[in-house]
Amino acid sequence: MSSPAPTPVYTLRGAGGPLNTLHFSCHDADTPLLYSGSGKGLIHVWNLNTRRAKKIVKGHSGNSIIWVSTLQSTDALISQGRDMLVCLWDLSEGRSEMVDSVWTGSVGFCQCSMLEMSPGNHLLAFPGEQTEEIKIIQLPSKTPVCTLVPDAKVGMVMCMKLWQPDSGLGPLLVAGYEDGSLLLWDVTQRSVLSQAKAHPEPVMCLTFDLKRLRGISGSSEKNLSSWVLDGQNNLQLQDNVTLVNPGISQLCIRGDGKLLASAGWDHRVRVFGWKRLKPLAVLQYHTDMVQSVAFSDHQDPRQRLLAAGSKDQRISLWSIYNEGAETG
Amino acid sequence: MEILTPSPEVRLTVAQCFRTLTTSTDPKDLVPALQTLNSYLDEGPGNKTTSSQRAEFRRAHFTRSLQFLVSNIQADWVHSLTATQRSELWDGLFLKGPPEQALLVLMDGIGEQSASAGLDHLVSITEKFLQRCRLADLLWYYCQQTSPSDSPQLRETLLGRIVCLPDLTANKLHLNNKPLFLPQQYYPLLAAEMFTALEKTCQALKDGTDCSLTFVAQTLGKVCVQGHSGLVLAVMAPRLSACSRSDMVWQRVSWKLFENVPQRWVESVLTGLVQAVNGPEALGRIIGNLVLTNKKAQFVITHKMLLLQYKYETRVLRIILGYLAADKDRRPLLIQVLRSVSQAWANPSAVKHTPLEQQLYVSKALLLSVSLLNDSELQELRSDLIHCMLDGMQSHLDSSVVRIRHMGMVVGECLSSRLDIGGAALKFEYDQDEETRELLSLMTPGTGDEPEDEPVNVVDSPQETTETTPHADSEASKVDPDSDLDSDDELTPYDMSADQELSKASPPRYLRDCLETLTSSDDPVRVELSLRAAEGLVRKNAFAAKEISVQLTKVFLHLEDKYNLSGFLSLRQSTMVALTVIDTIPVTQYLTTEFYSLNYSLRQRLDILEVLSLAAQELSKPITETKDQLISVSNSSSADLNPYPGDNPVHWRQEVERRIQSKTRRLTKGATKPPAKATPNHYAPVAGHFFFPLLRNFDKPQVTFDLLGTDHLVLGRLIQTLGLLMHLAVNAPIAAQMGRALLDFVWAVRYHVDQTVRRGVLFAVCSVFLSVNSQNLLVDLSDQLFETRTWLADVAEGDPDADCRSLAVQSLVLMDQSLKKQLQDPQALSLES
């Protein structure tokens, strides 16, 4: 019958604070890296071969880090902290110095979203000084592109995702707001294309699958809500998944579009089949809220990992539904 | 009337033939003599003898001739005949003459001859006699005689020969018996012959001739009373049923046949018949209104088969009651039956003293007859039925046996719904099982049509079926061709059963916190967590547990399931067991004292017993096991906790069975397994603390608790628990004392009305014999053994409960074995002296 619940492959300890965000960078097969941002202002760079922290970056003057990412072409690290700054770091050749920083003025917990337009040219969307406002700038030139402010009262912006559609239109951005609605923005037109009320509670997290034009959002209640973009760029709500315990901090879709993972406030990571949202596994290890979950971007699919960062200061790494690994 | 005058001419000729046959050895003389004898039997046209001569021969000389032939069967001249002559002239005499005389002579001859060629010859003639349907001729011969022409003695003898032919031949021929004479072949043959005779009778009646069925009826009666009713009626009943379906003459013949069965054989014929027919209508056609005309039949059908016997299937009940209900003349009997059945059902003494199977049978009869009533009759019987229902349900629900309670509930439900008391039907909660479902199904009328007797020559239609199957196949194969290949299905889910609601509070870490929460908290979540954590905490920290063991036991004993927590009972029980195991003496002291004190519910008292027995079981596990195993064992035992202890005696029964198995000597199995090896355990030193306090106060009734009075449920459990405690104390030094005390205790209640108590007593006695070693048994308990033995023998024979009987037999066997072993051991004898 069903195999027993899986256990982590290994865990990373010593972050010294609750883990808010995780980011894999495994292009280099020799040294696969995992970046983690902690609540104490530390960014750990974990080497997944030695399973040790290769480097610890102190930044944001001890304020909580809420988002880390890397600029793929330049190997630069970008981080967002509660000190209202988004910082760009140069970590090459053992350095760890801040190259640039952007003042956001946001006091919320909304994570930034970044889009690579062309090598060396990125768009960064971040929450603005007004709670409902989203600003988009170009990097590295820091020229503002636009400011998106909804007309309707939807409350604080909670999460967002920026992408470039295949249809040739300008970049699109979907954002979740405090009253539970989702807004689809056309960045070049600065207009709302579509709106949908996905949750009765604030949207805590969302993620979007570019291939299927389908996204999913989580909230502080028990339901995950999935939605699609139709040909006219309308947001259409699809099926719901009801969980056992309420509260989702983050959602993540694996690169091949097969799996969806959710980081739950109930200390558990849930894994679903992305296509039909069929529940597949419940990963239990953490003893406190799981705040972040990420799938690695290994070249070899058998090495792919799922990482979960929790408030209990640990990162757990799991290997599930990897071909070859399954038979073991 | 010249026929009646004896004709000296015939006598002379016969005598002449005999003389020739005795003196001559020449076939030339013998053959004509035999031919002469045969000529008296031939009816052919070329015959020289007159009909009066033939009648004279048949009447007066036939038997004599046959006897003469049989007595000379070994004579030389018989052997000098050729085979054809022999079969034609010699055998022909037996087969052509009056069959009754021939049969008598043949059977006498077989009886007298010793094993020889002559005997074989006679047997083969008898075989031919049967094969040529001479029995039908015989029976038909008697049917034609409206007034008996021969003596009753002769008839009686003939009847005996016909009915007992298989016995007679089997006794004589032993292993050389012919298959035709075996009961399995003979009685169906006899039945077919009887049916042929009846057929001829019908024909004769249609032609206006009078017939008598007395002899056939006697044959039928005698066959049935000798226990062959199944074989005979299996052949006759379907044919009678089929023939009487449309033919009035047949019906009359059939009714007459059963009316003519002598009184003393009516019962066996009727019981056989109701089992052989396939529906109430068939029974009505075959016996007509026999129940109204024949007192004996009425008694058998309306009383004996319903209230005294209970071996029949439900189908038979349906047939009997359906038969009574089918005719308006017989309906008063149905009402009478219903009255008596309902009285029997409601009788509280019957509930206590009759076997369960009989009660089930009576319940079925009651439901069936109620379902057959029409509305006006129901109105008439309403008050009776309500009375019966209320009384009967009370006594059934009082019973300590689950099946009886269920029976009461089902019958109550059915009756109340049928009576329609102010629109409110009773509704009970019980587990549906096969028995209750069967009872419920009785209220819906039977399937109505009785199956056709004659299998209508169905032109089998395999073609059709084969035609349809390929269609179905092709459709089935077409199912769902476009199933989504690219779905989540390739990903098999992991086990997700651990994905439970997350509780907000954390479980208590210390036993005192548990205690605090359980006594004072009103938060269901915390109470549940404490409850779940308690057993683990008790076992983890025995030292801390000992400090507050009694206090905690008290709390748990009084704990109520205020929040309807799942698994409450088993959690509570396992914690109490853990406490008893950890801190045995104070806790047992507390529990055994509380057992007899005021203000406890029966449930709590039963809990106390349950906890004591589980704790004793856990303690009695061999010491060598590690502690982890101990815990896991106790967990598993408490997980499947039965909410109604006593309903399920399987647990301790298995234990005893196992022990008995190991002790019983089986001759076929070669060497026996030695009894379980004695190993040290924690229970032996403290067995007394469990056992003796429970015996202390049983005869002091409290206001709320009267063990020897109405609370026999607890008494039964108490004795069972004591038996278990005794059983676990095997090899303990204190066992002999315990055994003596237990035997003394159960002596007072050994004939208790409640069978659970009696079962408990027998179990206790069994365990005494198992646990006390045989030497002590003889030395310490010798004065009680004799009485116990007598009592056990009595129970084994006469107890209405089957379990009690078998337990009593087991105890007897154990006791005898133990004593025998002891008495055969010379060392023990010397010790005793």
From TrEMBL, chain A:
Keywords: Repeat, WD repeat
Annotated source species: Xyrichtys novacula (Pearly razorfish)
InterPro entries, per database record: WD40/YVTN_repeat-like_dom_sf (IPR015943), WD40_repeat_dom_sf (IPR036322), WD40_rpt (IPR001680)
PROSITE patterns in UniProt: WD_REPEATS_2 (PS50082), WD_REPEATS_REGION (PS50294)
One Pfam family named in its UniProt record: WD40
Keyword Repeat: yes
Gene3D superfamilies, A to Z: YVTN repeat-like/Quinoprotein amine dehydrogenase
Protein name: Guanine nucleotide-binding protein subunit beta-like protein 1
UniProt WD repeat ranges: 283-320
Keyword set includes Glycoprotein: no
From TrEMBL, chain B:
Protein name, entry field: Telomere length regulation protein TEL2 homolog
Domain Telomere length regulation protein conserved: 508-616
GO cellular component, one term: cytosol
GO aspect biological process, one term: 'de novo' cotranslational protein folding
Compositional bias (Acidic residues): 482-492
GO molecular function terms listed in the Swiss-Prot or TrEMBL record: Hsp90 protein binding; telomeric DNA binding
Compositionally biased tracts (Basic and acidic residues): 470-481
Subcellular location: Cytoplasm; Membrane; Nucleus
Pfam families attached to this UniProt entry: TELO2_ARM (PF25320), Telomere_reg-2 (PF10193)
Alphabetic keyword roster: Cytoplasm, Membrane, Nucleus
Family as reported in the entry's similarity comment: Belongs to the TEL2 family.
Superkingdom of source: Eukaryota
Record-linked Gene3D superfamilies: Telomere length regulation protein 2, C-terminal domain
Annotated region (Disordered), positions in chain: 443-505
All copies of domain TELO2 ARM repeat, residue ranges: 328-418
Xref: InterPro entries: ARM-type_fold, TEL2_C_sf, TEL2_Regulation, TELO2_ARM, Telomere_length_regulation_dom
